[in-house]
Write a sequence for this structure.
């Protein structure tokens, strides 16, 4: 799929336009979703988590990749503590599961998601970022998990996703001591894959989004849905799952057309970017 140059983002319509804590714009096969609570450092309220879930469930069918950013000076400062109320155990579990449902829809939804990180990426903000597939960190980005100092524990999937990025020992240190990672430390630890200058994150994300959107949809699906599950399986089970996914991917008409184009010299060879 060839992505034309000069894409112009336009505000989304319909249901997506009604989500007032998000700004959603579309350009061809790319969606740009922006957390829109800058006065609260894009802290995640119950309404915002519900709107995130709704947005990713209802992305238009022609969207192939999404970019997630934060309005203002920060990506996301985590849970909106002003909404933290006394909950019994049942209510606490249900609240956490609401976050899980939203972030599962990002990680295991229809399209790959690129997060552009700047300013605070802490607590629930780091949990949100870890549910995305590719993370681009600007120089101002910093990472923290302050739940331990606030008498809390991660509840948005962080105990599952963050250790897969940085390891259990590093996450333990962050939660026990309140350690904060700067951008370069975060990239080195695996919390982001790309480091860019302040203000350059969206351009980099758009460059990556164009590449991702041009991939075969089934290949993107396999990377999103099969790869993390294979990583959790035993070697024997993982290899068998890989065989099944490889057979499905290569049997699609899109894959056959792309292979034919490569063999006939009509597609690019692998080059270092």
């Amino acid at each position: 799929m060839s992505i034309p140059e000069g894409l112009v983002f336009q505000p989304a319509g319909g249901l997506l336009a009604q989500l007032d804590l998000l700004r959603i714009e579309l350009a061809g096969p790319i969606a740009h979703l922006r957390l829109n609570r800058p006065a609260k450092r894009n802290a995640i309220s119950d309404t915002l988590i519900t709107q995130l879930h709704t947005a990713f469930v209802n992305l238009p069918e022609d969207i192939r990749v999404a970019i997630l950013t934060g309005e203002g000076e920060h990506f996301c400062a985590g849970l909106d503590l002003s909404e933290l109320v006394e909950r019994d155990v049942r209510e606490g579990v249900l609240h956490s599961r609401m976050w899980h449902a939203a972030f599962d829809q990002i990680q295991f939804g229809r399209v790959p998601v690129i997060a552009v990180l700047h300013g605070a990426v802490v607590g629930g903000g780091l949990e949100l970022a870890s549910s995305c597939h590719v993370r681009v960190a600007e120089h101002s980005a910093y990472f923290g998990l302050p739940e331990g100092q606030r008498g809390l524990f991660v509840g948005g999937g962080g105990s599952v996703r963050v250790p897969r990025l940085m390891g259990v020992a590093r996450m333990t240190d962050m939660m026990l001591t309140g350690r904060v990672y700067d951008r370069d430390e975060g990239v080195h630890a695996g919390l982001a894959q790309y480091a860019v200058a302040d203000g350059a994150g969206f351009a980099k994300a758009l460059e990556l989004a164009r590449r991702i959107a041009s991939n075969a949809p089934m290949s993107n699906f396999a990377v999103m849905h099969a790869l993390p599950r294979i990583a959790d399986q035993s070697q024997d089970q993982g290899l068998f799952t890989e065989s099944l996914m490889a057979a499905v991917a290569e049997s699609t008409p899109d894959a056959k057309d792309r292979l034919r184009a490569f063999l006939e010299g009509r597609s690019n060879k692998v080059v270092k970017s």
